[in-house]
Design brief:
The complex is a heterodimer of chains A (232) and B (253).
Chain A: E1 3-15, E2 24-36, E3 40-44, H1 51-58, E4 66-71, E5 76-78, H2 91-101, H3 106-120, H4 135-146, E6 153-157, H5 165-180, E7 184-188, H6 192-198, E8 201-206, E9 209-214, H7 216-231
Parallel strand pairs in A: 3-7, 3-8, 5-6, 6-7
Antiparallel strand pairs in A: 1-2, 1-4, 8-9
Helix pairs in contact in A: 2-3, 2-4, 3-4
Chain B: H1 2-22, H2 30-49, H3 57-91, H4 98-125, H5 136-157, H6 165-177, H7 190-196, H8 200-214, H9 220-248
Helix pairs in contact in B: 1-4, 2-3, 3-4, 3-5, 3-6, 3-8, 4-5, 5-8, 5-9, 8-9
The chains are: A alpha/beta (232), B mainly alpha (253).
């Protein structure tokens, strides 16, 4: 057993409103999970089950309001695209800014700028303000920067590829390569096919509670068996 | 970790200034034009319309407004910073104190340009550099600490009570009039004056005028007193932000 992250009966509450006496809303009620080194854990559950909140809790963006979270000293990061981008700045400046926000040192980003430029295929546009970019170009830059962060635990919320058709193939391949290289991964998805493709473990959560953790097929079939009952 | 934070703050400040320049037609020129217009307004009202008979009124006003506008912009921009940073706070793990610090630093860079211009104007007006200038960095540093402290405190509370933004400008205006920026506090009754020595801005502006206009060294006792007040406010603000750091992300969108 080599658990990198363990959650024990974790709950997370959000403020429903900006009022002194406003009720709190529990996005996560009671989630327990164990994430072992090298595991690729898929999280399945219906809309509003708390999947994204769980991912942000694992990333350390959100602190639990109850329960315990134990982490080995490893970096856990969400794959975040275009973080902190400012429209009036050049692609280069935005790459540096975004990299710093994602926790990279200035020197580390500077040394990766050529790789970012190459992967994003922006060419001369790299020096232009990103307000002149098309949506696809911004997505390419965002993805290229995000891939420079190499956390020990990679957290992915739905997105496996970005951009136009051509870049989707390229970004998808790059991300799959990262996933297969032995990185520990937590992957949230609505798509069974994607979970089957990426993951070797799965966790099913329902109304903010962890229901079942186990093999992918086992969890998926239990999840679908329960679906009619939950819908009724 | 600390170095990374410093790099993040410095680069964000550069990005902020750069983006601000790109957002307007005249760009950098606004750093000078905006405060100059502000000074012209007060000059018009107090010197021309109200015929303030105070000697040296123009340098008096320029020094006061330069120091005041720096403080004011740090507090008003800084106080919005965490609130406006909420989308980013929900996305990445980033130390919240970065947001107001970036605004304060950006306003300080702009202030330094205006200060340089002010010095040139004063020299042209017949107030040459003097040995008391050596005390100027101390005065400015205390003002920076006070401004940062005030900005941190308001910035910490703002995300929970965004309504504060309707109040903050009014409070700042009142504070300006109570700090002797546009008119002298000599007219204030003796009894009330005891309170004014606890107002850091009044003391700082008075010290700044003494140095720049009269070659007079600051009143170190008064300066020491408000340094303590400023440090206490700074520590309180930083503590509030640290204490509430995990709560910002849970606020409603």
């Amino acid at each position: 057993m080599n658990a990198l992250v363990t959650l024990e009966n974790v709950g997370v509450a959000f403020n429903a409103q900006l009022r002194a006496a406003a009720a709190r809303f529990w996005a996560l009620e009671d989630v327990s999970l164990t994430l072992e080194r090298g595991a690729r854990l898929g999280i399945v559950g219906r809309n509003g089950a708390g999947k994204s909140t769980l991912l942000r809790t694992l990333a350390g963006i959100i602190e639990p309001d109850r329960g315990r979270i134990m982490r080995a000293p490893v970096s856990c990061q969400l794959l975040s695209l275009a973080v902190g981008f400012i429209p009036h700045l050049s692609g280069r400046d935005n790459a540096i800014l975004s990299g710093l926000l994602l926790g990279l040192r200035r020197r580390a980003i500077e040394s990766r700028l050529p790789a970012i430029l190459e992967f994003s295929e922006l060419g001369d546009f790299f020096e232009q303000p990103i307000s002149t970019y098309s949506t696809g170009m911004t997505a390419r830059l965002g993805f290229s920067v995000a891939m420079q962060v190499e956390p020990e635990v990679l957290l992915i919320d739905e997105v496996l590829s970005v951009g136009d058709t051509e870049f989707q193939a390229k970004s998808g391949a790059a991300l799959r390569e990262r996933i297969q290289s032995g990185t520990t991964v937590v992957f949230v998805s609505h798509s069974d096919a994607a979970v089957r493709q990426v993951c070797n473990r799965a966790l099913w959560i329902e109304h903010g509670r962890s229901v079942m953790q186990g093999g992918v097929e086992e969890v998926l079939s239990a999840y679908h068996a329960a679906a009619p009952a939950a819908a009724a | 970790m600390r170095l990374h934070l410093l790099e993040l703050i410095l680069f964000s400040t550069y990005a902020e200034l750069r983006a601000e320049r790109a957002r307007s037609y005249l760009g950098l020129a606004w750093w000078i034009i905006e405060p100059a217009m502000n000074m012209a307004v007060y000059y018009l009202v107090f010197a021309i319309v109200l015929r303030t008979s105070q000697p040296d009124y123009i340098p008096f006003l320029l020094v006061g407004l330069t120091l005041w506008q720096w403080f004011k912009s740090c507090v008003s921009h800084g106080s919005y910073a965490i609130w406006q940073g909420l989308p980013l706070i929900r996305q990445v793990k980033v130390p919240v104190q970065v947001f107001p610090s970036v605004q304060i630093l950006a306003d300080t860079v702009k202030f330094l340009f205006i200060l340089a211009l002010l010095l040139v104007i004063l020299w042209g007006y017949g107030y040459p550099p003097n040995s008391a200038y050596l005390a100027l960095p101390v005065v400015l540093l205390v003002e920076l600490v006070f401004a940062a402290g005030a900005a941190y405190v308001v910035a910490a509370v703002m995300p929970f009570v965004p309504d504060l933004r309707f109040v903050i400008e009014q409070v700042l205006t009142v504070m300006m009039f109570l700090s002797g920026i546009v008119f002298s506090l000599d007219a204030v009754p003796e009894a009330a004056r005891a309170w004014f020595v606890l107002n850091p801005i009044a003391v700082l502006v008075d010290a700044g005028r003494g140095i720049l206009m009269h070659g007079r060294w600051p009143d170190w006792l008064a300066l020491g007193r408000i340094t303590l007040i400023s440090l206490a406010l700074y520590a309180f603000g930083a503590l509030l932000i640290r204490r509430w750091t995990t709560r910002y992300v849970k606020l409603p969108t």
